[in-house]
Specification:
homodimer, alpha+beta, Uridine Diphospho-n-acetylenolpyruvylglucosamine Reductase, domain 2, Uridine Diphospho-n-acetylenolpyruvylglucosamine Reductase, domain 3, eight-stranded antiparallel sheet
Chain lengths: 459, 459
């Protein structure tokens, strides 16, 4: 096989055995054991990617695509005896098209690189998951979200077109520099969020927006978490469309503040009573509407029971947002055993939170966290050492979310960690359709087997 | 068959032969001949819809879903010997959920009815195609757009979840009251825009936004159409995100003004020199940013060569937008033989326009029109009586659009009218995937055969 892969990418760009570094054995998921793949190939072009897939399909070698490896669900944890296709050599920004407000990039480009490339043009790609070292290809795979999704949507709302490599060895083009089209089934949307199980994106066309000149950040302190969650629909009802609308419980706020040396100037007596925080980011091309929005929301938060509301100025606002982006690392440092990514209709967040907390308490587990409150996307750090107890708890928490109209993952994807829960809990009719779709794209089943479909139940 | 369908919906709700009124033989497409279906059934529930499909699938009876019949591509023109499923009895607004800012509706609810139901709550469904008597189910089928898509996106950006009936007789649920999720393949997005060929939506969850309190409308007059199109990227670059960004050529403006008795107070010497108009709608929860936006855009349009720019006040603004919504009817009244719906990257609209005009001139055909300039969605009325000449012209215009990075349809869908052009011009790899998807949903091929896939080439 090594020779066959080398014939595609050149012998310098395919390795096997111990020559595959340990970084390629895992992503950042907290659960599960790293797996060494059999082969690692680094294609330079879309055509090489497609040829690699054809060679792998002919030999029934499982293939796992890898971007920057920053995923949190084990979607790029390789299969034993499998091939990892790493996109590190396909990392060019191909086009910043100012008139159409789109960028065309290769999958290995990171969010930070795209941000740097769009900034001089006064444009931005609005998908900001916590980790800016993530690759665009990876974010397409997981349909990544992040804090600004409440205003700008997630990856699927901002990717307009793809070129993708198929196990047949063919390349397919979908969509384009088009914000709308009604011309056949939407293959772009189908590939986004498919976690490397249908086709591998080799070129990605994303939508850009003008960078707003002004921003402001409000932080409201509450004495209980459900009160924060109940405030969310009220904030959105005003029509002051926030760019960021996050909640943090007090444990998380203390942890990220310590980790990042954050001093927000909260009065000691307020901090002592605080159980939860609401962070609201606004942006605008003008300053005046921001000030109006801040005033209006400040008054509203008062009536909703906020102990105090702070308008954070430039540097401390930036530091708070950066600290929030790093909440995963604070949770990891504090010994969290898993990070949940459940999404529920935002108005039922309090009910979900109460139910999940009760389920955790029953098994002596502990949940703390923060989340994209505007989207109902709850990130909970789970402290529960025993694997079996934890998986069983997670299964019940996922079932609760689904019962409340939610889903297992809002933005991290299912990966190797959560696929088994998904296949056990999902609508069998929907699952059967997904199997049929998988069959149409990947009849040999070489693309990331065990992810999205066909997982074993752990819970 | 009649008895079998009657066993599902009751004999009062299924008819055959001459008892099927002529309205059920067609939609509003200008091309093609009405077709009388063999059966018409009106289910009352999702379960009845699914059972009808199972009965039809067992007997290999083709099924065409019908909402309000306002489509423009013949997607609900029935198959001979087929069954039409009309959703007129499934027309209830099931839920206006203010806290989650979503509505749940049955497919037969019209856009006008949903607008009336959301208005008292200060919310709105933002998809406004010209025809508000369209059913929500129909707009899901075609992925309808309309004038406000430049700000709020098209149907696929505003439908969060579906319940849909399958030819297997099963119901499937996709998505939910969730603005984001990364939990398996996105079946919601796949069904949207599939024109009744994959599954029939029996319940639709849509996203609502707060109704902005203030709006303003600008109209700029230009001496040539490419100048208007070149102004579009400049307007969007300002960051003043318009709700509406439309162009009209002078023929269209004269026609809609006459049809709607519109008097916009344009000075006679300006009107005499006018060849094209740009209409910009803004909305906001506050008045002040609107005024700033109007001022800024007015100055910009001056520098871009506008002869004159008018700020239209309340009533005349409303009348202009309404007249623009009725442009299809004005074109039809003026004897147009077809209305195109091509979409291209917005910055290449001038090139597309020049190329299409040259192709038309070569066969003595005539193109006039208007369009959603912000989205690159060009609606051209085609005046070309001879069917063969016209289809051949359209084929070359579609090919030109695709060559420029565009697609055949921006929002009307392919229907019976344009499917043949699509299957002839589309990427064969993409087409093969679409056939595989079709197979997963509808193995017997009963759902709207000849639409999206398998059309004959007319051009």
């Amino acid at each position: 096989m090594l020779d066959r892969f080398a014939a595609v990418v050149g012998s310098a760009h395919v390795v096997t055995g111990d020559r595959i570094g340990p970084d390629y054995h895992h992503d950042e998921a907290l659960v599960g054991t790293p797996v060494a793949p059999r082969y690692l190939a680094r294609p330079a072009t879309a055509e090489e990617t497609a040829e690699l897939l054809a060679v792998a399909a002919a030999a029934r070698v499982p293939v796992t695509a890898r971007g920057a490896g920053t995923g949190l669900s084990g979607a790029c944890r390789p299969a034993e005896n499998g091939l990892v296709i790493s996109f590190e050599r396909m990392a060019a920004v191909l086009d910043i098209d100012v008139d159409n407000q789109v960028a065309v990039v290769q999958p290995g480009v990171t969010l930070a690189e795209l941000d740097a490339a769009t900034s001089p043009h006064g444009l931005m790609y609005t998908v900001f998951p916590g980790e800016l070292s993530a690759s665009i290809g990876g974010t397409v795979g997981t349909n990544a979200g992040g804090m600004r999704a409440v205003r700008y949507g997630v990856t699927r709302h901002n990717v307009l077109g793809l070129q993708a490599a198929m196990p047949s060895g063919q390349l397919v083009r979908t969509g384009g520099k088009l914000t709308k089209m009604s011309t056949g089934y939407d293959l772009t949307q189908l590939i986004i969020g498919s976690e490397g199980t249908l086709a591998l994106a080799t070129e990605i066309t994303v939508r850009l927006y003008p960078r707003p000149a002004h921003s402001a950040t409000l932080m409201a302190v509450f004495t209980d978490l459900p009160a924060v969650m109940r405030a969310v629909p009220e904030v959105l009802r005003t029509g002051v469309a926030p760019t960021i609308l996050e909640y943090l419980d007090t444990t998380t706020m203390e942890a990220i503040s310590r980790a990042q040396d954050l001093e927000l100037g909260i009065a000691p007596e307020v901090r002592a009573a605080a159980e939860a925080y609401l962070v609201i980011g606004l942006d605008n091309r003008e300053r005046a509407p921001l000030d109006t929005g801040i005033g209006l929301l400040g008054e509203l938060l008062d009536t909703l029971g906020a102990l105090d509301t702070y308008v954070l100025e430039g540097n401390s606002a930036r530091l708070l947002i950066e600290a929030r982006e790093k909440a995963f690392w604070s949770a990891k440092a504090s010994g969290a055993d898993e990070i949940l990514d459940v999404v529920v209709p935002r108005a039922v967040m309090p009910e979900f939170f109460d139910g999940a907390t009760a389920l955790a308490r029953a098994v002596d587990a502990h949940l703390v966290g923060c989340g994209h409150a505007g989207d109902g996307n709850v990130h909970m750090a789970v402290y529960c050492r025993d694997d079996h107890t934890r998986e069983s708890l997670l299964h019940r928490v996922f079932a609760l979310a689904i019962e409340l109209g939610g889903a297992i993952s809002g933005e991290h994807g299912l990966g190797r960690i959560k696929t088994a829960h998904f296949t056990a809990l999902a609508d069998p009719v929907a699952l059967a359709l997904m199997h049929g779709i998988k069959q149409a794209f990947d009849p040999a089943g070489i693309l990331n087997p065990g992810v999205v479909l066909d997982g074993k139940v752990l819970g």
